Amino acid sequence: MQRETAVSREGFLVKRGHIVHNWKVRWFVLSKDQLLYYKIEGGKKESRPRRIISLEGCTLYCPCMDYENRPLVIKLKAKNSVEHFLEASSREQRDSWAADIQKMIRASNPEGQEQSNGSNMAFELPANICLSHLIIDMQESNSGIKEMTNGEYGNTYKLCFTGSTVIDWLVSRNVVNSRSDGVTLASLLIEDDLIKPVGNKSTKAVWNFAGTEQFLDDSTALYCFAKNERKTDSSNDKIEIPHMELSGKIVKQGFLMKQGHKRKNWKVRRFVLRADPSHLHYYDPCKEKNDQPVGGFSLRGCLVSALEDNGIPPGIKGNVQGNLFKIITTDDVHYYVQAGSRAERSEWIQAIKQVT
Length: 356
Known about the structure:
By secondary structure, the chain is an alpha+beta fold. It has three domains: 7-108, Pleckstrin-homology domain (PH domain)/Phosphotyrosine-binding domain (PTB) (PH-domain like), CATH 2.30.29; 131-228, Winged helix-like DNA-binding domain superfamily/Winged helix DNA-binding domain (Arc Repressor Mutant, subunit A, Orthogonal Bundle), CATH 1.10.10.10; 235-355, PH-domain like, CATH 2.30.29. Helices cover 20% and strands 31% of the residues. The strands form four sheets. It has a seven-stranded antiparallel sheet, covered by helices on one side.
């Protein structure tokens, strides 16, 4: 059971996956001796963390030079040698997160106690295996994992498979040397949203794990592939932003959640507020090349206002977190945005009003 600890700070950071090295936004919570992160679903933080990183024996690297095109990355090396790469929204945010994490690392290590050199080495994917090919092989109709209809506690689930089936498949094809390695690999596939828990037993295991393993090598725990939720970039979605719009002085930047205009789904974007000329642009922090805006608009003549937190206002869909505000352009386009806190929402509204 997760213990209650005082929160030092919290907010969005972009995290690199352990095996599939893609980048995903997570909500991080820093406390006295641990760093937790949560997934955002439907505009709201999930109730329980995806992972708990113990800060005891950790080593922090800032600046981190591992990613040339991502200068805002912090590297956190855990006691068991697992490396966590976390990206902030600005240099100021990167440095302040690093300072706060370092403070908690010191607090979690008694003075004079030597840090471990990592005797429990992390599982590493064999060099001759490409994970993207592995997932394709797992979904092959003839030689892959069979998707079947399974039942649990009176509920019926289609196109799923058991946890023990996954481990059997990995071991029988010599992808891993042992079932414990298979559990670790499958757990990382869950974390990167390539496999998803189905039903009560496997879902509870995701939330209640105490280390790096959360996958169940169990014939009654159900899982499915996340193939139907995969999204690909379309060249038709590329938006050309005039250079003049990007020439203004940066007034404020940070991570905010924005509701889409068509699907009405919520996504975390890095917002950049500029003045002279006054524009608000937003970037997709998960893209490999995230230095080009995916959207933006002029703030001249715009109206910005906070939305009440009691109930869901008209125009809003999803089970939202709160701290909402709305921007209406001169073309009567409505942008709905969520900040991480009430104070952050006030700061954004005030900054936007100053440049409109």
